[in-house]
Amino acid sequence: MPLYETVFIARQDIASTQVDALADAFTGIVTEHGGEVKKRESWGLRNLSYRIKKNRKGHYILFNLDAPPIAVSEMERNMRINEDILRYLTVRVDALEEGPSAVMQNRGRGDERDRDRDRDRDRGYRADDRPRRPEREASEPSAIAAPAEGVEQ
User: Fold this and answer.
1) In terms of pTM, does the model score above 0.85?
2) Cα-flanking dihedrals φ and ψ of residue 41, to 5°?
């Protein structure tokens, strides 16, 4: 069977238990039509890049599916009908990822950046104290170095 990755965004004002119920319903639709949900990840409540139907945040859910196209199209049809779903995207892939997705791997990295920023602040660095590009050497030609020959000033 073909492999798919589906991500959907649910409205911000529904509870996480309702989001889990939506995910369970979509899982049931896929299994009912002969497919299987290999992995299910909840990425939590995240900021949207732009407003969607007056929402600034949304609950993100990822599915890795091993399902026939009929099951995926039925799941997408139900997502279109459901008012709690803001957006969804399904992509056919050659192989499913093993282990946590990139979003889940990057979740812990925010703590590392905060620690690095705190360490730099403790050492007396400011945010604008970053390495600069080296200055040009005198041997490099410069467009404004000297006027061309024969040009009077």
Assistant:
1) no
2) -125, 140
